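RECORD TYPE: inverse folding
INPUT: structure tokens
STRUCTURE:
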């Protein structure tokens, strides 16, 4: 999670966290998978552009299929549900609400829980600040109100 987040936010000093990950038992391949996943998530913007401007060549369904293939390839050994949670966090960090909503839906479809997503979003506080976390939860609430996913909390 942290490796993908510091990649998405371009935190150059993040390399100290990569070494801490290795010291805690992650493999170089684990870190590479997380970096590749963060990079693959950035394809969302290009595909979204194409579906909005070139519908004759890139339909919404076609776009989802191709983007899903990119994510599946990039995630390596990261479990599908966790890859989606990681991407929720990356899109929240980069303030891309459409991508955040897209991956929220997919995270729940893959079996992620509200607690897992909330925990992932909590990582935003240090590199991105509390306002970014609040914005992400607001997007999650909007998605839940639209029936796209379960809400982050119940009253």
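DESIGNED SEQUENCE:
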């Amino acid at each position: 999670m942290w490796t993908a987040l510091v990649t998405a936010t371009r935190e150059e000093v993040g390399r100290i966290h990569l070494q801490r990950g290795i010291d805690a038992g992650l493999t170089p391949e684990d870190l590479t998978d997380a970096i590749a996943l963060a990079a693959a998530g950035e394809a969302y913007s290009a595909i979204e552009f194409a579906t909005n401007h070139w519908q004759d060549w890139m339909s919404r369904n076609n776009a989802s299929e191709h983007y899903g293939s990119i994510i599946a390839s990039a995630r390596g050994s990261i479990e599908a549900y966790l890859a989606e949670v990681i991407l929720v966090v990356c899109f929240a960090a980069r303030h891309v609400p459409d991508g955040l909503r897209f991956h929220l839906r997919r995270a729940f479809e893959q079996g992620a829980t509200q607690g897992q997503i909330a925990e992932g979003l909590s990582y935003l506080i240090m590199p991105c600040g509390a306002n970014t976390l609040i914005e992400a939860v607001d997007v999650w609430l909007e998605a839940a109100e639209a029936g796209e996913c379960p809400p982050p909390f119940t009253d």
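NOTES: The CA atoms of residues 3 and 18 lie 7 Å apart.
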